[in-house]
Structure prediction request, 319 residues.
Amino acid sequence: MNTRSDADRIVERYLDDLDRALAGLPASRRREICDEISVHISEARARLDGGDEAAVRALLERVGNPEEIAAEAGARAVSGPGGWADALVPWLVLLGGFFFLIGWLAGVGLLWSSATWRLRDKLLGTLVVPGGLALPVLLLGLPTAVGTCNASGRPGVPTVTHCTTSGLVIPPWVGIAVVVMLLAAPIAVAVHLERARRRP
Amino acid sequence: MLRMVPGDEPVWLAQLRRGSVEHCVLALLSKEERYGFELARTLSDDSRLVASEGTIYPLLARLRRNGLVETTWRESAQGPPRRYYRLTEAGGVALAAFVGHWRAFRDAVDRILEEAQPS
Prediction:
């Protein structure tokens, strides 16, 4: 039934938020609290008459704000939401490559040292794409193939064009597709990092 | 997104609650062992001693780390296995000390309040 899976999704999202809020804690303590609260929610849901969305929302409200639970657990965000370092990360990862690559490296350093993002986000931010937008822009500047054409033509004689191509030969559409992907991917990842940062 | 703003309550009330709720948990466990859900409901339903049910779990984890409570897993008739909390000897000692201090503290505050506003 649809309402049931909606309720499941809400619980799943809540537990994700909680896990993120507890990021400052050692892994075992984080696991323990998440497991306990997950069991708590199961117990509470088992006592509900109908497991509809509104009931589950009310239930989660009783369980409490993830930030509040994290505060009780002593999880002080190293640089919490709103931390200036976190705010810089998506921009540095995207555009830092233009500053002699140092900017990008700084962005990746901040990304990995922050508790805001999960491992998956950190891997994404680092690997897609190393250097950020600087990479495709750099590639655009490199000639992939050098073509030289000699046109020999005389009046009355059909023009004959001789073209020789040297260097790496890539069909133009492949080159364009690769560059478009290399442009789009880091932008998408930066947007993702920014969203993850803003989520409470 | 769920928006759950902690209720507007004065800071001192939150601090007072913080300072006493751990020992209330110990007191609840002094008669019998209980599982987390049960403790959370008791503390939020009747006494409003916790701001939200979830905050009980970090607190229980802290009590366990400090050796004041210990836990055992038990199968439950419905749902997942439950973690039961039980008072340790050290927990009993801590509770007894708290009870003594609390009564003295409560009496002192009461006395001052009564002197300040004669009824």
In short: The longest strand of chain B covers residues 69-74. The first helix of chain B runs from residue 11 to 31. The CA atoms of residues 34 and 112 of chain B lie 37 Å apart. Residues 1-5 of chain B have pLDDT under 50 and may be disordered.
